[in-house]
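Structure ticket #2291
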Amino acid sequence: MDIVIVGSGPAGIQAALQCRQSWPRKSVTLVEGESHVGYCRPLLPQFMAGQAQEEKLFLFKPAEDALLRVKTGAKVQSLDGEKQTLRLENGEEMGYERLILAPGGRPIIPRLEGADGLEGVFPVRNLPEAQKVRSWITKDQKIIVLGGGLVGVKTAAYLRSAGFLVSVVEKENRLLPQALRGDAAKLVETHFRRMGVDLYLGQTLEAAEGVSGKMKRARVGGRWVPCDALLLAIGSIPNVSFLENSGLLEDGRLRVSVSLQTKDSRVFAAGDAVTIFAADGKRYTPWTWPQAVSQGKLAGANLYRSQPVPLKALTRVNSMNLQGLSLNMLGAYVEGSEEFLYAPQAEGVLRQVFLQEGRVIGGALVGDITGAGPIHHLMINGKGSAQEISRFIKPSFGLLPRSLSDHGIQRRRARLIPGEGK
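Resolution: structure written out below.
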């Protein structure tokens, strides 16, 4: 075989399409452990809530292409770089000329006292589990979503908007703790409470109890809460266990350069499984859907290049609409950076940018995401002056006054707030 790609998430699909475009004479084999390929994971909350049909999830369907083969139900067991072969769990071996690893992540399943063997407990990660959730939940049930990160808040928002009774349990003291801080997180929390979502922040799930083998209640912060369905959305870890003896891991991480090349020049990797080691010694894990798409395309384009080109952006930008509340997350703050903030109290809007040494390094747009593109452009391509930044914080307000505060813009040092870790 010429090119083999492991994984059919956004990185794997984009890599396959790019390979067929960049290297049209090379055959491509896409290997996937699941029985489905090409579906969009960000649409799973809508599907579980009954707001999207299954066929609408699929953004990619294999076309009639003699040089593009899709192999489903094929779980990779190991990789032998010297022999250039993959071994599947069924004993089959597959050779390759070039390889792209895009296995994504696997959900974190916490150990919960009393939950073993109970029906009604589901990880939120893939289509098979989402199908189980959709067939299990009913409008009269109480649903707990464990985890207030990207997946958890989106799942809760869609289920609640569809009329389900939903609670969110998050161990940090705010929603979206890896992306938002302070007032930005509070706006999201206010929106959820207005929707009727019960929030248990700064608390953990301690135990579960069932009746006749089915989930019925969970202990949260020392008290029992009714729960007919428990959805686990506390994150994922890179799915790299099959690479343990491959020589490609460093401290358990799948290490790649900024051009997505591994230690083996014939093997590239992309998506949620990788850790990018930059020339300055910094490590990046920008595990978002937009990054997976960009990385998949670049890995495919770089596969046979004598001089692979680097990623243009290592930013962790993500956007979503939480059933009426638009949200664009540009990146976490850094203590000591300068913060530009526009937050008119009456409008339910917060627009925030962090600047360090004249460069935009992060921020958040809540309730009004206009100007997100230009701000992201500044993050990627160069430095931004205070005048440029303030122009985007409150869009279309015309000429700047002598004092930015005249337009409700605050300029201050970003600082660490007690209890708000990254």
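Closing remark: The CA atoms of residues 231 and 376 lie 33 Å apart.
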